[in-house]
Amino acid sequence: MPCGILFALCTGIQWEWLPQELGFGSSMTCWRRLRDWNNAGVWQRLHEILRAAGSLAPAAAGGFPAPIGSATKHWVTHEHRT
């Protein structure tokens, strides 16, 4: 399921077009997980952990400066339509 979420966010594909043949599971489940994890602060916490571990380069070095959740809020806040 995390792979399905990341695939949709990275490619910009619509949730209902998430290819099940790639083993991502239900698009609705992926969308709900993203919404729930975002609301629970999971993406923010993951970003903090990776930043502390040195896995994310600082923004000045061309790294990803914002938590994933803040970059995906517009996907999360819109209702899923099939």
From TrEMBL:
Protein name: Insertion element IS402-like domain-containing protein
PANTHER family per record: BLL5188 PROTEIN, TIS1421-TRANSPOSASE PROTEIN A
InterPro entries, per database record: IS402-like_dom, Transposase_6_like
Origin superkingdom: Bacteria
Domain Insertion element IS402-like per the UniProt entry, residue ranges: 4-47
Pfam families the record matches: DUF4096 (PF13340)
